[in-house]
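User: Predict the structure for this protein chain, please.
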Amino acid sequence: MAAAALTLPATGAIRSFGRAVPAPARPQHWRESLKYWAEEVDLVPDLGRDVGSLTWWRGLATCAALCFVTIKLAPDLAPLPGLAEAPMTAARYDEIRSQMITPLAYGSNSGRHMGPTELVSPLASTPERPMIQLFSSVGESGGLSRALARAGVSSADGREVMRTLGGEISPGSIDPGTRLDITLGRRPHPKAARPLDALSFRARLDLAVDLKRENGALTLHRTPIAVDDTPLRIRGVVSDSLYQAARAAGATPATAQAYLRVIAQQISLERIGAGDRFDIIIAHRRAADGMAEPGALLYGGLTTASGKKLDMLKWTHEGREQWFEASGVGKKRDGLAKPVEARRISSGFGMRFHPILGYSRMHQGVDFAAPTGTPIYAVTDGVVSYAGRHGGHGNFVKLAHSGGIGTGYAHMHSIAVYAGQRVRRGQVIGTVGSTGISTGPHLHYEVYKNGQTVNPLSVKFQQQSLLAGRELKAFRARLDTLKSQARGSGVAVVPADTVKAAEDRKVASR
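Assistant: Here is the predicted structure, written as structure tokens:
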């Protein structure tokens, strides 16, 4: 059978399994050509793939063409021509220099300065002021001599000042912050220091001094100043805070804090509220020229809104300043101090086998092991009732305390007190030793209650000073006198609204 020839249709259609597939249309316009290239042709192929293919070479050509166009369109980076400034003449330089800050730095006057001419002749030496008046102040460290040196006073003049003041005024007693008015005179030659011609300062609240150079030497002139020592009284009403109310009424921070500590001995500060009245009296010195010097707190009072009244006065009792309430009751002191600094207790209180006597017996104290010479301290205030040799105790000291309490210290190497002497808590009364019946250096410490020994480790009694008899009468007389004197000082009561307004001003100023 003869094979049939395949003939393509004239229309360009392709037969496929009995169906005709139309051929792709060719672009008839340039816009269609661009669209065709954009959609069908990859102009930016990946140059890392198919290296050497026609697509790769087309992408390389595109990259090179873009680089060429970028370089050709780059701006020119050559420098732009400009006009050079003409060289500055001497006259122009002098004109500019007269308006610079350099002349001011060298001490000349401000303003316009003209250059020198033939009518101006240079000076052989610059004239200086015949005197310089300045002031300095005494610092926290170094005292008067350091302040004079900082002000430019020569060391020779500084030593002369110290010699002149030495017999009358101690330079170390001058308070920090004291102002020194200094006058320095004309120096004999440019390399010499200016001599001290005059020095004035406030040596004390009641004394001003002037040192003046007369006939080549400094002469001291004193100016006494009258001082009023009347105590200052500050009273007011509490609004929100007792401390803020006291500060608003005129108390210094130190005075207000000291007052709070004293009041807290008798009443909790948390219980003090609005409407309570405070009363403060401090030592106060006021000079005739108005300068004042506040002192220590002497009295602290408080009256609560419910009517409870508290009066606290500083009083010297048994050689020590303490605060007492108006009834004569002082501050409570809890517990006992440690009698010796020891690392361990070598023997406790109770029955034990005696290492020397060879039998069991009651050990009526506590032994603290410590080297010979270690200080022994009084555990609390008391009076020495015995000091000396005491049988097996060796060197022995016994102290009597208030409330029927006593303490004993045995086997001491040395004794530093005597019978009848009053001692304070923490005072050294002797040193550790090994006298009497002892196997080595240690302190045997005993505590007595109504004459009977008790375990020292179980005793933590309270002590409270009490005034009685003539001392209580003198205490109350001093309290009345102080309040009457301070009342005459003219310090008015500060109302609550005044205190509140002062507090509001402080808050607003912040």
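Residues 1-21, 488-510 have pLDDT under 50 and may be disordered.
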